[in-house]
Structure formats: structure tokens, C-alpha cells
Amino acid sequence: MPSTEAPISPEVQEHLRIAKRGCDELLVETEFAAKLARSHASGTPLRIKLGLDPTAPDIHLGHTVVLNKMRQLQDLGHTVIFLIGDFTSMIGDPSGRNATRPPLTPEQIHENAKTYYAQASLVLDPARTEIRYNSEWCDPLGARGLIKLASRYTVARMMEREDFTRRFKGGIPISVHEFLYPLMQGYDSVALKADLELGGTDQKFNLLVGRELQKEYGQEPQCILTMPLLEGTDGVDKMSKSKGNYIGITESPDSMFGKLMSISDTLMWKYFELLSFRSMQDIAQLQKQVNDGMNPRDTKVSLAQEIVARFHSQHAAQQALATFDARFRDGAIPEDMPEVQLGAAPLGILKVLREAGLVASGSEAQRNVEQGGVRVDGDRIDDKALQLQAGTYVVQVGKRKFARVTLTG
């Protein structure tokens, strides 16, 4: 266990407060406080690990919830390790899934990893970030090493994992290789001698495996810090490219701004806490102002501008606001509008209009398009054959009919 000899000074308490902002859980808090105190007294930075599997080529704002926390800890002087799970991606993470996740091929992993770190560097300071690939130590293990590693964790402990238990009870197959995923992720912590590992709430089990394996290898166990999963623009499911409710950090300023403005007034506050760099005191003051009658749209604008400026520039944020306002100058977007979820993207605009309840028939949909009365995210639509891809859109018919439509694949 960490030594508690170093004093928990006011500065250490402030660093602990920063670490805990917006987090779901910090285990074990007393251990982490002791690690911080020892680090402060000795001048030795803590080793803080975040592992991401390059399952898709792009990073969205949901990923940056944990990256923002890494940056906060980096700014406190600690060593952050951005770990690309090129080896574990070939296994496939079963976390939270009801079926075996297909593993990626080495070619897919290589292509996805090309842009991963470049995008993460928009949040992290690349000059102070240690980038690693877990194939560095996983490939050399070989069959003999893997068997020895597997001997250090029991099947009973593995079956404590909720998704495994649910699938086992439901008669849904669990492949043996799926047990290897949390085992290998835990071994990453051993290889890196991590003091703290970060992840989403769905990663808690895997992070705890790392603690146990470090004990098995005679290391001081890492603490774990889990961050909430960020709901996407639909306000229902966690942000995901496959759900079409994501905001990519390399999207254009106008697209990013518009999507942020489309989130609900309620969800806006969670985005502030997890994505904004404003202090919690500032955010509390904004909430008070809204409760006292300030238009929540103005507050949402400040959030959208902050995020766009972070990934583009302040000038781009100002231009995005001007473009957004110009789109809806002829008829302001209502603060509240129907939320509609439709599947089977891509979906034709005429069918979208019907299924969203904005028109009564296909002929009415066609007539509105022909007369220039249909807009999607403020842009007039004149193509009756337009296909909308997965995503969230503000769809408008005439001056008074609106719906926020989310199309999923």
C-alpha cells in the first residue's frame, strides 16, 4: 500500500479535487491521496495510464471526457501514458456487450491508429505525453508467458463481471479468448508500472484486474478513476459513431457548432461539467443565471464556442456562430421541438419528413421540397432524392414545423 508518511497538504488536496471533478468513482481515494502526497514531497511524477483501442479511425467528444482528465493531471506535472491497444484490439473488448465482438485485423488497426494519436494531441500536450503500443510487451509473451499470466487470475473472479454473468445465465456463448482481454489490459498496467489508470465506467472491471495483477507481480497497485459515459446528441445512448449521435473532434467548425447547439438544455450541463474547461464555480453561476431567467440558448452558445475554439480556433468559433445565426434568421429555432429516432440510415428525405410527423403524406413531402419549404440544419433542400446518412439533424418544414431527427444505421 502507498506510504502515508507524506503530509496531505492544501496543495495536494486541491490536486485531489481537480482529479475528482466530474469523475464517477475514484478507487481507492485514500491511496491516491497518499500517492499524490508522496509525489509532491519527492518531486517524482505519478505514472497515469489511459488505454484506447483504435476500433475506429476518429475520436469524438465522448472520448475526450477521459482525455480532458488526462490533460488536467498532465498540467499538474504528472506523466501521462497514451496507450494504443494494437494487441488487445485483435482480441476485441467484450465490455458491456451481449455478444462476442469481432476482432480487428492488423491492417484495420494500423489504419485506425494512424490518426488516433494526432487527434488525441488536440487535447493532450504531445511534448509531455508518453505514447506506447501494448504489442511491445504482449507479443513477446508468447504461449508460455500467456499461460503463466493466466494462472494468476481465476475463472470465478472473471465471472464476476456483469456482462459475462448475464451472457452465461442467458445461454449466450462466451469465447475463451474474451477472458484474455481484461487479463491483457491488466498486464499493461504491470508493464507500465501505472500509479493510476483512467477509463469509462464500462471499463471498471478491466481496471480492477490491473490492480490485482500488479499485486501478483509485487507492485504497488494502481488506483483507478472512472469517468461517466457521455450521451450523444440524441440524449439517450452513449456517444457512438455507430449510433450516429457523435460529434467528431475533426468535424468542421459549423458542423461541430450546430450539433452542440442541438443538444437538450438539460444535457447541456453534463457537457459543461465533462467537456468545458470552466471552473465548477463558473458553471454553477451559469446555472443560477439560467434559473433566474437567462435564455439557456445563450449559455449553450458559450459552450459550443469554447469547444469549437479548442479544436479549431477562436476565429472559427466566431464564424460558426455567425453562420448558425444566419441559417435561422428567417425563423428562429424553437427551444423545444419533437425528438424523433429513426433507423435504417441512409433514409430518403421524403420518408424522413413523413416518419418524423412533419407532413401527412408522401405527396405533401414532395410538394414542400419542390416549393423550397424544407430545410435540414438550416440548409434549403431541393433534391427529392436526397439520402440522409446516420446522424442528428434539425429538420424544418415551413416556418413553424421542426423536429430533431436522429438516424441510426
From TrEMBL:
Report which superkingdom the organism of origin falls in: Bacteria
Q: Where is this motif: 'KMSKS' region?
A: 238-242
Q: Name one Pfam family in it.
A: S4
Family, according to the entry, reads as follows: Belongs to the class-I aminoacyl-tRNA synthetase family. TyrS type 2 subfamily.
**Principal EC category:** ligase
State the Gene Ontology BP annotations. Answer: tyrosyl-tRNA aminoacylation
The protein, known as: Tyrosine--tRNA ligase
Catalysed conversion reaction:
tRNA(Tyr) + L-tyrosine + ATP = L-tyrosyl-tRNA(Tyr) + AMP + diphosphate + H(+)
EC number(s) on record?
A: 6.1.1.1
Q: Which GO terms describe its cellular component?
A: cytosol
